[in-house]
Amino acid sequence: MKEIVRTNDPVLVSAVVALLDGARIEHIVLDQNMSVLEGSIGILPRRILVAEPRIREARRLLSDAGLAHELRPDAP
């Protein structure tokens, strides 16, 4: 699994998850339940990870949806 998006925006998380679900791309959202520790103020970002074999496809999907600016830079 590799991180492709990191954000504090719950609407963006929902949109990215919906796109990935629709394309049947395996993913996981980490730190979703951290609001208990942060007091629901939204300072801890949520991380969306995608299975290694589907990263290129996921990045292309999000880029085509106009979310390229939200993508994490590719690791070298």
TrEMBL record:
Signal peptide: none annotated. Gene3D superfamilies: UreE, C-terminal domain. InterPro entries: DUF2007, N-reg_PII-like_a/b. Residues 1-65 form the DUF2007 domain. It holds the Pfam family DUF2007. This is DUF2007 domain-containing protein.
